[in-house]
UniProtKB/TrEMBL annotation:
Protein name: diaminopimelate epimerase
GO terms under cellular component: chloroplast; cytosol
UniProt catalytic activity: (2S,6S)-2,6-diaminopimelate = meso-2,6-diaminopimelate
Top-level taxonomic group: Eukaryota
Signal peptide region: none
Subcellular location: Plastid, Chloroplast
GO molecular function, one term: diaminopimelate epimerase activity
Pathway recorded for this protein: Amino-acid biosynthesis; L-lysine biosynthesis via DAP pathway; DL-2,6-diaminopimelate from LL-2,6-diaminopimelate: step 1/1
InterPro entries cross-referenced by the UniProt entry: DAP_epimerase_AS, DAP_epimerase_DapF
PROSITE patterns tied to this protein: DAP_EPIMERASE
Biological-process GO terms, alphabetical: lysine biosynthetic process via diaminopimelate
EC number, as in UniProt: 5.1.1.7
Annotated source species: Deinandra increscens subsp. villosa
């Protein structure tokens, strides 16, 4: 409900509000109705000209909400008005994305500048990123690209790839197939939609070589950075660096005090200082971790290009890899994030990391670019 309220501008009357919320979940055309998807609202976001927009810079984001009686999956996403973007918003544990059907082209339908406006939580749709579902590349079934909410392009997104899998299965006829191959900036990623609706993703092998992460932190003999001291804003932190295609700096605490209580952190203050630290030439995502047991961790994340988010899938994978490297956990862990838990396994047999978690539709709509 807060979503509709947050995006509604004046044309939303009490009668169409009732109409929005009285809709039966089973009329939602994009997903198989399930307990968790029953909150998906069926409405169309239609662009309103600048009239109501106090800030012309954000013209793409003047949005009104109207009930849409005859929408179907194909009629909605196949419409091709020039200058109008049809999207479906998904989230994975509150890490939210504007999903774009880009299957007819390798050229993203949204520029990085437009992505910044669309992701704006006050003047736009509101999201942590924009994800493009594209044709496969080099033998894969599909390609996934993503722009962060600041317009930068990361190599990979864990929660995003679970949303991607659900989006693809809603868009395409997979003939009962539950798994497919996805080309990403981090290489081959293989999601599988489970019978319980969750998505399990083979996230590939973690990268531990400092120069490949990349980080300039002096590495150990094996070229990894494990439990190494760095100074951030005058404070010494012990960090382990892991790439899951994208760079992560994982910390369990400060020098001499490695029992973080993550809820006590001022993330908005410390997060950017890690992100832009000179030791991370491509910036970094940073995970602050509290250990409950050898199979139960809690983390908060400051994401490169997106700030504090409710969850980070690649981050949770990096956290478990770091916890294992530091001798703090087993290979199978539950990682609690602000948006909910993820199950992570770093499998000894193939050195791959596996992530399992939910992905849900929030709403779908159209917006003028
Ligand atoms: N939230 C994502 C990661 C998105 C990319 C990240 N901000 C970066 O720039 O590397 C996830 O779930 O993995």
């Amino acid at each position: 409900m807060s979503i509709a309220a947050a995006i509604a501008s004046p044309p939303l009357t009490s009668s169409n509000l009732r109409s929005l919320f009285s809709r039966s979940p089973s009329s939602f055309p994009l997903t198989t109705p399930s307990k968790s998807s029953s909150s998906a609202l069926q409405f169309t976001l239609t662009p309103t000209p600048l009239l109501r927009n106090p800030n012309p810079q954000f013209s793409a984001s003047a949005i009104s909400v109207s009930a849409h009686e005859t929408l179907s999956q194909t009629s909605f996403l196949d419409r091709r008005e020039t200058g109008v973007l049809h999207f479906v918003k998904y989230h994975g544990l509150g890490n939210d994305f504007i999903m774009v059907n880009n299957l007819d082209s390798m050229e993203p339908k949204v520029t990085p500048e437009q992505a910044v406006r669309l992701c704006d939580r006050n003047f736009g749709i509101g999201a942590d990123g924009v994800i493009f579902a594209m044709p496969g590349w080099s033998g894969t079934d599909y390609t996934m690209r993503i722009f962060n909410s600041d317009g930068s392009e990361p190599e990979m997104c864990g929660n995003g790839v679970r949303c991607f899998a659900k989006f693809i299965s809603d868009l395409s006829n997979l003939n009962g197939r539950q798994s497919f191959t996805v080309h990403t900036g981090a290489g081959l990623i293989i999601p599988e939609i489970q019978d319980d609706g969750k998505v399990k993703v083979d996230m590939g092998e973690p990268v531990l070589k400092a120069s490949d992460i990349p980080t300039k932190i002096p590495s150990n003999e094996d070229q990894s950075v494990v439990r190494t001291k760095i100074e951030v804003d005058g404070v010494n932190w012990n960090v382990t660096c892991v790439s899951m295609g994208n760079p992560h700096c994982v910390t369990f605490g400060r020098e001499g005090d490695e029992n973080l209580v993550v809820d006590e952190l001022n993330l908005a203050d410390i997060g950017p200082k890690f992100e832009h630290h000179k030791l991370f030439p491509a910036r970094t995502n940073t995970e602050f971790v509290q250990v409950f047991s050898r199979s139960h961790l809690k983390m908060r994340v400051w994401e490169r290009g997106a700030g504090a988010t409710l969850a980070c899938g690649t981050g949770a994978c990096a956290v478990v890899v770091a916890a294992i490297l530091e001798g703090r956990s087993e290979r199978n862990c539950t990682v609690d994030l602000p948006g909910g838990p993820l199950e992570i396994e770093w499998r000894e047999k193939d050195n791959h990391v596996y992530m399992t978690g939910p992905a849900e539709v929030v709403f779908y709509g159209s917006v003028e670019l």
